[in-house]
Design brief:
This protein has 124 residues and is of the alpha+beta class. It has helices at residues 19-35, 65-75, 95-104, and strands at residues 39-45, 50-54, 56-58, 61-63, 81-88, 109-113, 119-123. The strands form two sheets. The protein has a five-stranded mixed beta sheet. Strands 3-4 form a two-stranded antiparallel sheet. β5 (81-88), α3 (95-104) and β6 (109-113) form a beta-alpha-beta unit. α2 (65-75) runs parallel beside α3. 42% of the residues are buried.
Amino acid sequence: MPENGSAGTDTAAIELTDPEDVKLVTLARSARARTQATEGAAVRDTDGRTYAASTVELPTLRLTAVQAAVAAAVSSGAEGLEAAVVVSDTPLLREACVSAVRDMSPDAVIFRADPSGTVREDLR
């Protein structure tokens, strides 16, 4: 499925060259740190607006950070996504994260970064 990147391995870092992608990593790290959550995520819509969220773990509602960020984008009127970032200790992107992004934009890039902000995986 991945075209570029290290696809699930934590041995190689991927350097982001687009400042807007770097901004997403910063937003996702901040969302995770702010709530001490398992994951933090940020998405950028096709108008350039950004949305950040962390994992939601309530007794009756569970969302990955990406699902929560996508929900924020959709509820704000976003019609598509350009990119998404998830920051997590988990060494692989969860299917629920990928599906949430792909539901809106099949071609959006998805980056997975470790808690330090080092990008370890990209799916295109």
